[in-house]
Input
Amino acid sequence: MLREPVTIDPKRVEEIVAREEAEFRRRTPRSLEIHERAKATLPLGVSSSFQAVPPYPLFISHAEGSQIWDYDGNTYTDFHLAFGSLLVGHAHPLLVEALRDQLGKGNLYSLPCPDTVFLAEELVRRFAPLEQVRFCNSGTEATMDALRLARAHTGRDKIVKIEGSYHGHHDTVLMSTKPAVEAAGPADRPNTVPASKGIPADARQNTVIAPYNDPEALERILSEHKGEVAAVIMEAILMNVGIMLPDEGYLKNVREITRRHDVLLIFDEVKTGVTVAPGGVTELYPVEPDLICLAKSIGGGMPIGAFGGRRDIMSHINHSEVLHLGTFNGNPMSMRAGIVTLTQVLTSETHAHANGLSKQLASAYVGIIEEFDMPMHVAQVGAKGCAMFRHQRARN
Ligand SMILES: Cc1ncc(COP(=O)(O)O)c(C=O)c1O
Output
């Protein structure tokens, strides 16, 4: 049956939002109460400002599988899954058992344990660019450490970052993550816009912003900063702005341009690693970056990060060149969680199953969008997918 094409009526959107907010407030009085209390001791009442969403955040009591319960006892199907950190779902029985066992054997040694080696070997097996790897505790640490290493390897200070990408909250990369349109500058020559106060002016000078899917702009930027740039860091599939896929040949072009300018290429696979394919983006696109950064889903929900790549670059991590340190690095809980996640839970069958579900969901969304002629489109890759409020795919 043909229907009238849908046009978005802002007034109707406002009405629906108001109706849903009233219902949200009716169902979640205890979240409101604890949030009011939280604001006395925690800025915005939370521990990461990402969690402070209006009108107030849901406070969670527990979660299992795909289900999550709030403090008022409401149940939800969790499509958020900790910003994509839980491809394994919540409280997977194999992880619960393994982590209980590890807890009984001590949760922190700050000395190496064999699981660190086994997990490093599994990552090297999965991710083509990895010859060596080091563990840390978050995606932020992974990109921070990878960039320090790139600077040490090249002897240069500047880095190039893609507009709209997110690589964590350290100074170098907390720039132009979602800049205000008035501040963003021209599309092919974006400004470097700090996303937070408190970032030193020097940091801003050392981060040059390039547009996504624009190899000509990257070529020009690297020529203008000849001999100054240590690395280009990018989410090969840009996931900080919905899901933005690379144009055909774009990543290959980026690789050729960075090689020609003798600049390292770092793929931030914090979101894509193990979710878009068992071996991340480099399994989907035949492009070999020099370093990659991992975190989120590789640890099954435990705090973890990792960075690694070419052996000759990683070999700068020694007692006289690059320091890479951390009390919690390679801690036995996260290492155990990583091994169980990658070798027992995320088997080839599980990856295939998750990808199948993702495809099914995406095609159902496409069906609805087409049926109602909605100004939306769907992007899906591996276990990741989202519906975006734009008719056509955005490119940058
Ligand atoms: C691509 C990417 N890199 C780095 C990070 C930072 O990771 P973390 O929040 O673990 O510090 C994120 C977090 O969302 C991310 O999406």
The domain at 1-78 is CATH 3.90.1150.10 (Aspartate Aminotransferase, domain 1). The chain is about 40% helix and 15% strand. The chain has two domains: 1-78, 93-345. The first helix runs from residue 10 to 27.
